[in-house]
Each structure stands twice: as structure tokens, then as C-alpha cells.
What does this fold into?
Amino acid sequence: MNQTSVTPTPSETVAAVDLGSNSFHMIVGKLDNRQLVIVDRLRDSVRLGAGLLPDKTLSDDAWERALDSLSKMGQRLRSLPHHAVRAVGTNTMRQIRDGGAFLKAAEDALGHPIEIIGGREEARLVYLGVAHGLAAGDGRRLVVDIGGGSTEVIIGEGLEPLDRESLFMGCVSMSARFFAGGKITDQSMEQAVLAGRVELRPVRRMFHAGRWETAVGSSGTAKAIERVVVANGWSDEGISKASLKKLRRALVAAGQIDDVKLDGLADDRRPVFAGGVAVMSAVFKALEIEHMQVSDFALREGLLYEMVGHTQHIDVRDSTVHALMQRFGADKRQATRVETTARSLLKQVSESWGLTEAEHTLMLNWASRLHEIGLVISHNSFHKHGAYILANADLPGFSRQQQAVLAALVRAHRRKISDSLFNGLPTELAECAKRLVVLLRLSVLMHRGRGGSHKPPIRISAHDREIRVDFPEQWLDEHPLTEAETAREAEYLAGIGFTLQYA
It folds into this structure.
């Protein structure tokens, strides 16, 4: 059944439903200042693929689980018009042969039409979703989405998928084939990984390591593996080749999936976890992946973004920052003043301070725009509230590390400052963040009066942790308040080991 082609209005609520072979997902979103905001989610472990019988019909148990899940989603979605809901079925739904009986029952339970999409269309939508959750300009990406019955592999750039394939293997099918009853042996794991590599062999050249720069995993298997390897200290973030090897050894050592004692492994993921690990291991080996980051976005987010027409080639982080400014009522004129001054100061010290990468400029720009978003909560401690928002909010396009840096800049942009504010950052990022925050603090200081009056050009030089700021001759004598604030700023910066001289 085809989806109605009416375009949702900018203020309309939209929803996507992903009927996967292992889990059913529903997400509900709404456009807020041109930013898609997720307002509701529901996930059910339906294990539809495990209920597919040899004659390609569904078992009674799988039928009942599926309709029960869809009925719950239908209660949330029945009030929405058909054009505002897009539901799609993937691998297992593609295989069911019962004359359309299950599809009709599923549509009745959901209250909306359900599309059955092909594997390559699934891959396209997966990439669209993942790409909207990542920063633009990261070069070519390999995206791997391991579902219950199929694995989508895509190479893309920006928002455009360039090559995409859907492979007939997934965590449910691989678990049923090689780990029946939950038994895990060294031999069964090796056979499962080898079977995955055989499946990948026809497309290995298309997706080999030389054709992409970063690898990204999406959906349940990738997220489950990342949770386990991070929780057990085998990886700091994402999935590494070494952490995946340790995970395989731990599963084999346990011998039985119910005996696996690993932090981070959810009970509803346990029955299909070994199969998912085998597929991921095959992907790593065949495509020579050393490290894979993991995205929170996938097929369902791709459905939503396609519905609202967000297909422009832009850095999604700019849209995220703009939406935050709108949502928290940031003073755009003040933000522009601070940003303009900060960019001027950065230009003067970028070489001496090693702040020459585009990301340094972007981070300073975004921090300048967002430094006052906490004012809507409290005036006295707005820098703390702003930092909390940035550290914990869902910020499309920003990695966890980038959010941490941005939060640190906003937290440290005023009042007393100490090294402890940067403790959560890697050493190299912490030093860059401290230098950026010096520039942000000086820019905020120059515009503390919040007026549109002309500010004098400031000359700044920096070497290591020594900073020199020169004002025009006699200017400080004529502006004693600024001189007093600059003197106090020198005391604050000493708290993180910087020496500020001015004249």
C-alpha cells in the first residue's frame, strides 16, 4: 500500500513506525523552529523474524506479539492523519507469504497504511537518518545497519547515499542458524563469522576501506555492542576491532547465552546478541574496519526527515544551534556582538595558539551564540544551567565529545574558573577548550554593557599561557569600569594558569 504524498505542514506532528525483524519502533516528532524534535518513542522486542515459519507464514505467537505492539502504537497515532504517519515493514515483512492476511491485520491494529520497502530503499532511508544525526563535512562515511533479518551497508557523503546494498543476514537469522538454543562455541562463532564474510564477499570491493573515511553503526545491534564494550572497559567510545575480539572471546567462554555475565547487556537483546556480534565481526573483517562510531539515528529518523523534506546539504549542527537559541530565547543581537569579537580575537592568535582547524572556529562561534541560553532558567547561575542543557540535551549532529566541549565553554565563560571544569575532556581537547574559553570570556567582557555602541579594535597576542591585550591609547582611562573588569578577569584566568597583561 502506497503512502499518501501530502507534505506535512511546518507545525504538524509526524510519526514513523519501523517494523523490523527483531523490534518494532515508533517515534513521534514535531517541527520546532525548523528543527525536528522527537517528542515520543516506543520500542517493543517483537522478534517477528523468529516467528517466520518454513512456509513463510507467521507463527501464532509472533502474530499475537506483533499485533499487540501495533495496537499500543495505534492508540498513540490514531488521531493523526494518514499523511502524517509513515509505517514501513522490512526484511521479515518482505518474506511473509499469506495472501496479505497479516498485513491487513497489522494495518487495522495500527490504524494507518504500512509500506513494505525493499532492501536498498531501506538502506537509503537508514543513511538519511544517520546522516541527519552527524556533522556535515566529515567526508565519505560507511554506514552499517544490522537488523534482525538483513544488514544494510551504505557509503555516502553529506546527506547523499552514493552506494548501498542490503545483505540477507541479521542478528535474528544468524542466531537461529548458528546459536540455536543459546549455545555458543568457538566453532559456531567462527562458522557464523565466516558465513557473514561469504555474504559480504560480492560487495566487499564496493565498500572496502579505501572508499570511506569514517565508519558508523546504527540500530539495535550496534548500540547493544557499544553499550557492552564500553561498560566493560574495552572501548572508550564506539566499537573498536580489539573490543569486538574481546567480546567474542567472552561469549565463547560463557558457552551459553544465559550464562553470559556482561555489564550493559539488556535481557531483551540477549537471545539474538551472539548472532549480532557474529555479523558485526564479519563486517569488521571483510571491510577492514578498525573503529566504528555508533549513531542514535536510523531508519525511523530517516523516515521522519524525508517526510518533512529536510534534505538540504547543510551542517545539521547549525540548525541545532539555531533551534536552541530560539527555544531558550537567546538575545541574537548580543550573541552576534560576542561572536564577532570572538572571531576577531581568534584570528589574531590562531597560529600561536594552534587553533587553526575549522572546528575550533565553529566551536567558538556556537559557544558565543549559546552562552546565554541558561538565562531563561536563572540569571545568577545561567552559565551552569546553559552548560547542563548542552551536556544533556539531544543535539543532532554533535558527538558526545563535541557536546562536552561546548558545555565546558559555556560553563566556564564567566565568574571563577578552575581546571576541574575541563576534567571530563581528553587532555588535548581540554587545552584547546581553555584557550577558546579565554577568547570567549574576553569577548563577553567587552560587551557586558549589552549596548550597540562602538567598541575599539583590540589587539591580542598569546604565547603558551601568556596573553597580552592592547587597547587604543587612553581608552582604558576613559572607561574605568572596563579596566576594573579586565583586572578582575586577570585574577580569574590565573585560576587555570593563564597570565593576562593589558594596557
Notes: Residues 427-446 form the longest helix (20 residues).
